[in-house]
Amino acid sequence: MSAIRSAQDWKKDAEKLSIRHQAFIAGKYVPAKSGKTFDRINPATGQSLAKIAECDAADVDVAVKAARAAFDKGAWRNEAPAKRKKVMLKFAELINQHRDELALLETLDMGKPINDSYNIDIPGSAACIAWYAEAIDKMYDEVAPTPNNALALITREPMGVVGAVIPWNFPLMMAAWKLGPALATGNSVIVKPAEQSPLTALRVAELAAEAGLPEGVLNIVPGYGPTAGKAIGLHPDIDCVAFTGSGEVGKLFLQYSGQSNMKRVWLECGGKTPNIVLSDCADIDKAATAAAFGIFFNQGEVCNAGSRLIVDAKIKDRLLEKIFKVGETLQPGDPLDPSTKMGAIVDKTQLERVMGYIKKGTSEGADLVFGGKQVRENTGGYYVQPTVFDKVKNDMTIAREEIFGPVLSTITAKDDEDAIRIGNETTYGLAAAVWTRDISKAHKAAKALRAGVVWVNCFDEGNIATPFGGFKQSGIGRDKSLHSLDKYVELKTTWIAL
Ligand code: NAD
Ligand code: MN
User: Fold this and answer.
1) b/e 461-494 (16+ beta carbons within 10 angstroms → b)
2) What is the mean pLDDT of residues 244-259?
3) Which residues, judged by CB distance below 6 Å to any ligand atom, belong to the binding site of ligand 1?
């Protein structure tokens, strides 16, 4: 039970691992109705890990019926708040107790370093569930100001059945960001994990049941987007969808809602985060280190990755030199080796996308100044070097589109104003960062930047208490914090004549 286990230890555990490979519906593991399965490939080796139930519309429908039945019965939503808190705290505790196993599953499934799965994803997911558990018995509803002859109650009620459609970059953590507030408010939930990373969601379903979550309140339906995902979007008896993934698919969910039952749709759709380093940055080394981790962490597969480095011409060369130095220390390695800081790209498709963008950067006239190659091909896995482009123009493809790989675009700004203008010149608005020693400039920039999070003299900071989500096409709604609870409730006014 410690992070300093060796790659050999993890590999030994991997051989003994029993992988949950069926859907979890109404409290039981079940095969897809069609009997179909799909292969889960370990991106570190290209080898098959397991055959997973390939759910489609028929299975989603069974899961919705189970979720609705649980909701109608009220075994969860009508339970006393203190009791629901206890169940969710137990669920969080069980996730922590299975930290080794879950970290291993996450790393085998999607290629991130075991050190990150073990120290970030799994404890972070448990902490998220526990944080919302703690909120359950501390939330009050409202009484409205009314004339003396009336009493008006404003109460929050669970929506009913929530569909959570999850990406592959932080599989369990993104599921936890939806499950925490959706379960805390008394809903039934159907999780569709990404086809690239269903293993941890499938495993924690039985931990939730063990913690005392009633049958049907949490269901997991693994499968592909255009079948299982679409069925969730179109289902007439799902009240709300919480989605994280690409903008393209986010927009489809808005359409699905319009074509079906007007279900609420919450979207977290990524970004093209500007990391803006002004000429009076107090600590260039710190800014460079943060910039490198900001784009190379998690193989660059991060929605708020600082993919556009916008830097004043006067300090650009010093900053890039240091970024290359940090980049040297982040070369891809075996994800099961605890010293590895960058793992494998999630699958062959994503590898090809990333390599395609690197080619495009060069062909559109940017300077490839660091990395840029696929490596470790002899492993059978999918690995890309940390990569930096210089002389990028903000209208080039690599500055506009979300690459979701370890590729940094450096854009030179003439002055402070130019830097902020370029920063905002994007269809996204998830996050932004600014580096300056001038407090008034910092505040002005923070106000001017159109993004859900602005970091000043830091990058990627935050905790479960702070909202996360986007302006513009980065999404609709916020994950984390008490604000996210509002996504999973309806407001009701009860007006009583006295
Ligand atoms: P995606 O948006 O296609 O997948 C996210 C989820 O949506 C998955 O569960 C998937 O099965 C589901 N889905 C896919 N197509 C669907 C459809 N037609 N109907 C309903 N559900 C559908 O993401 P991807 O294809 O795995 O990755 C493509 C790009 O998306 C990445 O390169 C990256 O830019 C972006 N992305 C962003 C995030 C993020 O955190 N914002 C996460 C993953 C991917
Ligand atoms: Mn897709």
Assistant:
1) eeebeeebbbbbbbbbbbbbbeebbebbbeeeee
2) 98
3) 165-169, 192, 194-195, 224-226, 229-230, 233, 244-246, 249, 252, 268-270, 303, 353, 402, 404
